[in-house]
Design goal:
Blueprint: E1 3-7, E2 14-18, H1 74-94
Bound molecules: flavin-adenine dinucleotide (FAD).
Length: 95
């Protein structure tokens, strides 16, 4: 990565900027299509979970950016995963 060309969509003017790297903004749409007929999703296609990360289907857990929440960071995804994993163990042991 050496440089990018930025185009002003209003004026059409292009400028070049020398840069070392780039973060691609991939958008917010979660890839939950395969699960839409299995668990409940919200209007943004995010999986709805309760506080234990359990979805609308008993014994099915979800974690991370694909779930309904305000902040999407490594720390929140990892925390979700911990909660989901521990509750999965508890769910199985209770069967
Ligand atoms: C450009 C950018 C910069 C960011 N910077 C920061 C930062 O500085 N600090 C920070 O804390 N967070 C940052 N984040 C957010 C952070 O990356 C996410 O919150 C975190 O990665 C979410 O983890 P996740 O495991 O929920 O989802 P992901 O990391 O998105 O993992 C989901 C995985 O599932 C896979 N997958 C999808 N569909 C399927 C399928 N059908 N079958 C099998 N696998 C599938 C994907 O390929 C992917 O590997 C950034 C995100 C982006 C895009």
């Amino acid at each position: 990565m050496e440089k990018v060309t930025v185009k002003n969509l209003k004026t059409g003017k292009k400028i070049e900027k020398n840069i070392d790297g780039v973060f691609i903004f991939i958008g917010y749409v979660p890839q939950t299509e395969p699960f839409k007929n299995i668990v409940k999703l919200n209007e943004r296609a995010e999986i709805i979970t309760d506080i234990d990360m359990m979805t609308s289907v008993s014994g099915v857990f979800a974690a991370g950016d694909c779930t309904e929440k305000t902040y999407r960071q490594i720390t929140t995804a990892v925390a979700d995963g911990t909660v989901a994993a521990l509750n999965t163990i508890e769910y199985i042991q209770a069967l």
